[in-house]
Structure to design on (363 residues):
């Protein structure tokens, strides 16, 4: 069976992928449709790696066959066969498309009677392909940045556009000190892969320019590709406006009501405690910038609001600290940023106006 080459078609079709690497490798980065069904677990891989350094490749291969034999081998082949039968359109890969994927492919054929394609060059080639897709998009396509004060609804704008890149969704983080979600962020490499695949799919739909939110280099623990971040510093911008009252309500929806529900849904017993710890820790990150007196005042407001929310589910008291934090901390920062970016502004307006402008905009 001929090897598959890394291609847009693999990602456009959301091709199921059997990842034969060790779990520690998979955890550092994979692809959205990949499932980790390793040839060797972490311990076995470590032992084989040591043997390779000490006695060479042939001895390492022999040790690998000793470690993955008998019932262990049978169990792994059974798992691969189950995946392959469930996903006949899929493929498999290892790190570089070498021995591990060759052996996985051979055993699937000889022991389970399944001919299953593997990717030439493996994970490394697939990742290289995706990173080149980002570079190509930066060279060939246009971009517009959506800016605005904290809580103005930039993500709400992106959700109404067909050509948006929702960086915060790919990073599973809202981008601010309070932006952590109840579920964990993807590995930084996985974030890059999500971005690249989104670009590939949007380009396949015929889009040649993209809207994205104004972000710093880091979205939580996920870093924007350097070339993209550098490009964003000079991109044309639209500025989303909203009243402070509207922004307070949106933050209350997303960072209080919505976030507490996320935490409780994931952990009904301890979710509210985790949500409370999240808000308190996020405010604590700002203590040096707020100053001790202002921080303690906001902390008291937050703790009072959390106590009321825990008691009877009422979130109204959260508006006090949200409004104060916007007025005294975030708004002065964003006002300065808007002034510094004035030369790049294409348009400014309320949400419906900005969405209308972007839908009609042509670079």
């Amino acid at each position: 069976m001929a090897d598959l080459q890394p291609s847009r078609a693999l990602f456009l079709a959301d091709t199921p992928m059997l990842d034969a690497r060790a779990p520690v490798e998979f955890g550092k980065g994979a692809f959205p449709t990949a499932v980790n069904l390793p040839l060797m677990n972490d311990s076995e891989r470590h032992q084989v790696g040591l043997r390779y350094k000490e006695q060479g490749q042939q001895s390492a291969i022999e040790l690998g066959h000793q470690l993955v034999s008998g019932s262990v081998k049978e169990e792994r082949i059974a798992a691969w066969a189950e995946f392959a039968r469930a996903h006949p359109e899929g493929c498999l890969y290892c790190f570089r498309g070498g021995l591990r994927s060759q052996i996985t492919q051979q055993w699937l054929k000889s022991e389970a009677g399944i001919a299953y394609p593997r990717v030439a060059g493996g994970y490394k080639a697939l990742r290289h392909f995706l990173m080149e897709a980002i570079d190509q998009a930066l060279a060939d396509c246009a971009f517009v940045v959506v800016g605005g004060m904290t809580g103005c609804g930039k993500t709400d704008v992106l959700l109404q556009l067909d050509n948006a890149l929702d960086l915060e969704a790919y990073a599973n983080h809202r981008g601010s000190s309070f932006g952590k979600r109840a579920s964990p962020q993807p590995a930084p490499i996985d974030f890059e892969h999500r971005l690249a695949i989104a670009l590939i799919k949007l380009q396949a739909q015929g889009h040649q320019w993209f809207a994205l939110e104004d972000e710093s280099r880091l979205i939580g623990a996920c870093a924007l590709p350097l070339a993209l971040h550098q490009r964003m510093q000079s991109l044309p911008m639209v500025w989303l406006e909203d009243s402070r009252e509207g922004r307070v309500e949106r933050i209350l929806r997303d960072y209080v009501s919505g976030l507490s529900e996320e935490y409780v849904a994931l952990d009904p017993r301890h979710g509210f405690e985790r949500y409370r710890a999240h808000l308190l820790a996020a405010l604590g990150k700002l203590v040096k910038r707020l100053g001790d007196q202002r921080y303690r005042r906001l902390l008291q407001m937050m703790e009072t609001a959390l106590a009321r929310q825990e008691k009877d589910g009422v979130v109204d008291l959260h508006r006090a600290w949200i409004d104060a934090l916007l007025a005294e901390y975030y708004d002065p920062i964003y006002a300065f940023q808007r002034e510094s970016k004035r030369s790049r502004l294409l348009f400014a307006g309320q949400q419906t106006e900005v969405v209308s402008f972007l839908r009609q905009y042509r670079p």
